[in-house]
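Practice problem: predict the structure.
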Amino acid sequence: MTRIASRVSQLNGEGALAVYSRAKELEKQGRSIIHLELGEPDFHPAAPIVDSLRAAVVEGRDRYVSPRGIPALREAISAYLKRTRRVDSTFENVLVAPGCKMALCLTMMALIEAGDEVLYPDPSFPIYPSFTRGLDAKPVPYFLEEKNQFQPDIAEIESKITSRTRVLIFNSPNNPTGTVFSNATLEKLAALAIKHDLWVISDEIYARILFSGEYKSIWTFPGLAERTVIIDGFSKSFAMTGWRLGYAVAPKHVIDALDMLVLNTYTCAAEFTQVAAIEALSDSTNAVDAMVAEYRKRRDLFVDKLNAIPGFRCHSPDGAFYAWVNIEDTGLSAEELAALLLDEAGVAGIAGAAFGPAGKNYLRFSLVSARSLLEEALSRIERVSTRWRATVSR
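Answer:
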C-alpha cells in the first residue's frame, strides 16, 4: 500500500475547529449556540477597504505579481510598523504571504533544521510545536504561569537552552492568555537571544489589540533587528480573516530565503487583496481604534461577571480578545466543563489543553461576539454553574 509521509503524523490540529464543528452539529439540531470558541472578529473590514478591493478587481489587478508582494504594499507595511511600533525597516525587509500562518510556516522552514530545538511558550498557538515536529525538530516548552501573571520565567528559559537550540518563539499579546510581555521581559529575552545566538520569531498578530500603553516590539532592542522575524497580518487588527493576508518582516537574507520558498509553493498572494491592504493600513476611518475600544468594553463586561461565578478565576487580559479562565475550583476537568457548557448551556469555549499541557485547568473564551451575546452567555453559564457550586469553597 502507498504510504503518507511520516511528517504528517507529527502534526496536530486546532482545538477551536473541533469545538466549532461540534457546535455547528448542535445548531443543525435546532440548538441555540453562542460561539466563543473561534478567534475570528465579528467585525468586517471598513468600507474603504472593500471599496478598494472592488476597484482593484475592476481595474484588472488580478495578475501574477512579485513573490515578495507588490512593492507599494511592502512600502506601506514598513511605514505602518514604523508609525505604530517604531520598527525601523524598509520594504526589502518585508514579504507578503497568504495568511500569517503561511508566513510563520515559511519562516520556520527557512530557519529550522532537523534536530534543532525550538523554544515556545506553553500555553500558546498550537501550530508552534506542531510545525516544529513536522520539520523533524524538537519543540521545547517554557511555561506561562498564573503565579507570574503569565509572564515567562527567564531563568527557566535559559535553563532549557542547549547547543541545539536555534529559535525562540513568542506571541505578545499572547493567545490564549491575553498577556502582553513587559518591557523588562522583552529586554531579558533580547539579552538571551544575543547571548546564545538565537533566532527570534515574534508573532505580533495581536499587537494593535492593546488595552493600555504602547506596544513594544523586540525588534527595536539593540542587536535584535538582525536576528528577529516579525509575523503579522490583517486578520485580527483589520477583521480581514477570510482575505488570507499576512507578512513577515526580517533581515534581507531571510526574506531572500522566504522568496525561494514562495517560488516553490504558492507563487504569490493575490494582487487585489494586497491593493486593498494598503487602504487598510491607512485606517482612514479609525476603524482599528473603534474596534479595540469595543473589545475593551467586552473584556470588562465579561471578565467582571465571569469572576462572580463560583469556581471561575480570570485575570483581565492586557491585549488580544480572549478570556483565559482558571476552572480548577469547580472540581471538573476543563474537558468536562467545556462539554457541559456546550451541551447544556449552548456556550462554546475551548478546553485549555488545546494550547498545551499548561492549559489543563483553563478554558478559553473568545470575546468576538456582541455584548448582548456575551451577557446571554454569562447568564447561561451562571445557570449551569449549579452543577458544581456545591464543590466550590470560597
